[in-house]
Specification:
Two copies of one chain form a homodimer. The first copy, chain A, is an alpha/beta fold. Chain A has ten helices and twelve strands. The first copy, chain A, has a five-stranded mixed β-sheet with strand order 4-3-5-12-6, with helices on both faces. In chain A, α8 links the parallel β8 and β9. Chain A is rod-shaped and about 105 Å long. In chain A, 40% of the residues are buried. The interface between A and B is large, with 41 and 40 residues. The structure holds a DNA duplex (30 and 30 nucleotides).
Chain lengths: 299, 299
DNA sequence: GGTTGGCATGCGAGACTCGCATGTCTTGGA
DNA sequence: TCCAAGACATGCGAGTCTCGCATGCCAACC
């Protein structure tokens, strides 16, 4: 059945005349006559009594009219919804990110998206890069904000990646530390410090970076949480590396000083969307906003 | 938009594959591919992500799927309703009748229709032939049960008439009347009686019929209501004519004797439906039932 | 009784839809 | 590494559908 038949039927029912309906719809009277005939044949019932002047709905026509109006309204609603979705007046974005992206990058981007498109629903979940990429691949996420060195990123499940920025490393020092007022610090200057690390595994950023500088850091404390690391630093127990994205949440009684860019490899930060298929307009927009926010943060 | 597109879309969404959907619908894969493409073009959005193995709904596809299912369900409902209406499992009949048809003809017919088709709603209204025909013409009634002499019927607004039966006249007599046990009475035998008439106008049945028998009836009382006429007769105040259809409601303490058929013109009883257009199946059925019941009553 | 208004229909041009065969791309196995 | 299999896209041609035009037919109205 062609929905045009229903539109014609509705117009005829409203106007009470094939000719009038044809005029309003831009058809000829003949086309209207045939479409009504087609609908009557399809429904196997007479929808209009043909009078000397115009037509009148039969009882079965009244039955059908209710349904026809509902169907046409619903189709209209469908078109409306799809248009709204395309123009970001509806929809949903499920975004996942690594922990420190949640300090300011992701919330700032979400806030900016919500401000511009308040009808888009945004949900968020934390996770490690590998988990996020897997959830993306299984369509549990629309956008994943990942970080990692090139080889780590390459090892992830397929995804469409947008490089947002590279993440410089900084070092967090107790407030009164001798280097606390420097604008840049070389890693080598910290060879004798007590270090607070996130883990003691060899692939850890600190260890490999320090090795390249020719020393083996003395890891005095292993502390996973950034908030706890800060406590150790503030207490003067040691120093620790801080990714740039986490700097905004550093407590005021510690100093955070950039490392010289040559001393640590830069971790890339990426916005990932599903490899196959088209991201939703809202997801695509969020990636753009993430890109903007990242530029603002780093630049 | 062709609703077949929506059916194809739904099938593909359920199966996750053009090929599978094609198999279940009896199409080729190529037809499915084209219909989905047509729907996507019509909606101006991509409904499925094409994967290496099958397809997956996009977010806009999920939006549309809800609407598509609703539309298809509604269309299904429409077909179901029309079928139910045609087979008297739904619908409505508004029937009107002259007063004495309400004594037993019309209620018996309605009862019989309701017994066979309990889902058909029947409503009823009383009225004079002219009113009923007018309401029929303005589609306020579906069936009108009329009575009248041929010239009266001919003067009514156009309607499709079914002749149900002719209505013999009887005379109601006080229980102890000298003619009370007769099987037939000639009008002439009642020339000297006191008459109870419904009106005193010259076109009244009694007067014209009596005139043809060569006497002018002595109308002692003018009483409109049949129930009241019975009271006058029972009290021995006179005699009155009774149409056959009202006999069933005669009180037991009066006698009702058929008049000789030659003595009064027979009034016809008709079931009328709209002149133009098709009566609903339920209305048509009611006319048939009225015909049956009338045959039972008179025959 | 002619005229007018309004629905139905024969006809032909153009558009659409389908199936068939084939192309393209990805995946997975030899 | 290459080939086979699976799955969607697409060129092509036959058949069907739909439209507008012109005309027919019918009832109503002047």
């Amino acid at each position: 059945m062609d929905t045009a038949w229903l539109e014609v039927f509705r117009a005829v029912a409203r106007r009470g005349s094939f000719t009038e309906a044809a005029k309003t719809l831009g058809y000829t009277q003949s086309a209207v006559s045939r479409q009504v005939a087609a609908l009557e044949s399809d429904m196997d019932t007479v929808l209009f009594d043909r009078l000397a002047r115009g037509v009148r709905l039969t009882e079965s026509g009244r039955f059908l009219l209710d349904h026809a109006e509902a169907v046409l309204d619903r189709l209209d609603g469908a078109r409306h919804d799809v248009r709204a979705w395309k123009s970001l007046r509806a929809g949903r974005v499920r975004v996942g990110s690594f922990a420190t992206a949640g300090v300011s990058l992701v919330p700032a981007a979400i806030a900016r998206l919500r401000a511009a498109h308040p009808d888009v629903t945004v949900t968020h979940a934390d996770g490690l890069a590998r988990e996020l990429a897997a959830r993306l691949a299984s369509s549990d996420l629309d956008v994943a904000v990942l970080n990692g060195y090139p080889d780590q990123i390459a090892a992830l499940p397929a995804a469409r990646l947008r490089h947002l920025c590279d993440e410089p490393m900084l070092v967090a020092l107790p407030a009164g530390h001798r280097l606390a007022r420097r604008t840049t610090v070389r890693l080598g200057e910290l060879a004798d410090e007590a270090w607070i690390a996130g883990s003691s595994s060899p692939e850890e950023t600190l260890i490999s970076a320090a090795a390249r500088q020719g020393f083996r850091p003395r890891i005095s404390y292993v502390v996973r949480e950034w908030i706890a690391k800060q406590g150790f630093v503030a207490a003067g127990l040691g120093v620790t590396l801080v990714p740039a994205l986490a700097v905004d949440s550093a407590r005021p009684d510690i100093a955070v000083v950039p490392l010289h860019p040559k001393d640590t490899p830069l971790r890339g930060i990426y916005a990932a969307t599903i490899a196959d298929g088209t991201p939703s307009p809202a997801a695509a927009r969020l990636v753009d906003v993430l890109d903007d926010v990242a530029s603002d943060l780093v630049g």
